[in-house]
Amino acid sequence: MSFTSDLISWYEANKRELPFRGTKDPYLIWVSEVILQQTRMEQGLGYYKRFVERFPDIRSLASGSEEEVLKLWQGLGYYSRARNLHASAREIVERWGGEFPRTFARIRELKGIGDYSAASIASLAFDEPQAAVDGNVFRFLARYFGYRDPAGSTSGKKKVIDEAQRLMDKKEPGLFNQAMIEFGALVCTPVNPSCDTCIFRDSCYAYLNQKVAGIPVKAKPAKVRKRYFHYLVITFEGGNDTRILINKRKGNDIWKNLYDFPLIETTHSLSSKRLMMTDEWKSIFLDLHPTMISVTKEFRHILSHQLILARFYRISLAEPPEQFNMHVAVEQLVSIPVPRLISRYWQKYFH
What we know:
Blueprint: H1 3-14, H2 26-36, H3 41-54, H4 58-63, H5 66-73, H6 79-96, H7 104-108, H8 115-126, H9 135-145, H10 154-167, H11 173-186, H12 205-208, E1 225-238, E2 241-245, E3 247-248, E4 259-260, E5 263-266, H13 272-275, H14 279-285, E6 291-295, E7 299-302, E8 306-316, E9 327-329, H15 340-349
Parallel strand pairs: 1-8
Antiparallel strand pairs: 1-2, 1-5, 2-9, 3-4, 6-8, 7-8
Helix pairs in contact: 1-11, 2-3, 2-8, 5-6, 8-11, 9-10, 9-11
């Protein structure tokens, strides 16, 4: 038996039954790949099912609003992926009449699709022999062959892709790619891998040389940027309901096109008293007379390379400040796409 045939035999006996497995529909494969990147399977499955129930094909996604797409995505993070998914669906409809591109090269041209996703879609949907290397595959082959290149490095990625391409079953590339990913996810795990029952332990470099814990070599951690957010949760009476001011985030910062509250960002932590002495606070409220209802404890919200330290200041006004013209009824806030940090506050303090 060869490495490849052993792997595929293991996969067919041990694979998890997942709703997107067995399909040749490139749209469904694409959505599953985007959702499950850096998302736990248990969490991602629920999002996948809700997403394809609302947008079952490319044309329905292309015709949907970005706001609805972001609302369905809420809580997953990495919102640029949702925006890219939506933009690419529109491109497929406009450029190819709704027909998904059928080659790795063409798929790779779509916004937000990298080598891994393009290879996965091309192999699973169109049987193109392209190795799909994610973190699971990198870890598995780095340990098996003893590669010492840091995780995420260009040199390490090239070695693993070349090796996976060599090992690939050219007749069933999609099956091979799924087997590689599944083995890394279930057996050759980051912590406490199942080496004692691993079918490859007798030929695995890391196992034979007691190097499992040290491979892959970890890349140097990126520096984490601390940001201090002071959210102004401003309400006022408007007509027959209580209104709340909201802000749509723009530019290239985090959470683009999601909604949050008017914000004062500072370089360090400030007390409420010190915050009210800042030029930003004074420019917002001018001669208005805000009533401070409550201030929360600090929320910690961790992103890939950022740590958000946020406080929420619930404030009542007779009328909104002139520079803020976006507001909704308090009851409507749950229907618009907001970052997870905002929904955490809302669930804990506003109900």
